[in-house]
Amino acid sequence: MAKQIKGEDGKVYVEKKPIYKRVWFWILVVLVIFIGSAAVSGGSNSSSSSSSSSSAKSSSSSSSSHVSATKVAALKSAQTYSDTMHMSKQGIYDQLTSDAGDKFDDASAQYAVDHVKADWNKNALKAAESYQKDQNMSPEAIRDQLTSDAGDKFTQDQADYAVSHLPQ
């Protein structure tokens, strides 16, 4: 509790603690230090895990050639896009190379889409199910969306598979 002092003019004033003696100040300092150290250590951990996974990926995918860290990073992004967003091969490539996306070079993006473990038919079906459920689209509208250059960019065969396997 703040200390009360009577001034020369007879008024009562409250003497405030200096900022460094306040509890909220130290809580804020600890939080800043914690977040800062997590950001710094998180960055170094991800680069070390990236390089360790790089060597693991390169030895598993091609034992005779070396795979760059950039290609491994592109492959990880591609796998995430396939697993979570159910994107098409062309959609992933475009996302990886886009200035508004991951900004990978063409060679790294091509490596990623060539080596990603994806079932493109399954991805098309998942996207189609989402369109059917969330947007109430007709099968033909879904097929058009899946194959559109402005849409998902699945192949015609993948879109046909997806539409033919939609729940009725």
**Termini gap:** 69 Å
Low-confidence stretches are 44-64
Secondary structure category:
mainly alpha
Q: What general outline do the C-alpha atoms trace?
A: elongated
Order of helix and strand elements from N to C terminus:
EEHHHHHHH
What's the average pLDDT?
82
Gyration radius, rounded = 28 Å
**DSSP summary, beta strand count:** 2
- How does the major sheet shape up? 2 strands, antiparallel
- How many helices in DSSP terms? 7
Tell me the helix content: 55-70%
Portion in strands: under 5%
The side-by-side strand order for the widest beta sheet comes to 1-2
What does this structure look like?
The chain has 168 residues and is mainly alpha-helical. 65% of the residues lie in helices and 5% in strands. The longest helix is centred in the N-terminal third of the chain and has 39 residues, at 23-61.
Which characteristics define this entry?
single chain; 168 residues; mainly alpha; two-stranded antiparallel sheet; 7 helices; 2 strands; 65% helix
Task: Give a summary of the structure in a few sentences.
This protein has 7 helices and 2 strands, in the order E-E-H-H-H-H-H-H-H. The chain has helices at 23-61, 69-85, 89-97, 106-115, 120-135, 139-147, 156-164, and strands spanning 3-6, 12-15.
Q: Mind sketching the topology for me?
A:
Elements: E1 3-6, E2 12-15, H1 23-61, H2 69-85, H3 89-97, H4 106-115, H5 120-135, H6 139-147, H7 156-164
Antiparallel strand pairs: 1-2
Helix pairs in contact: 2-3, 2-4, 3-4, 5-6, 5-7, 6-7
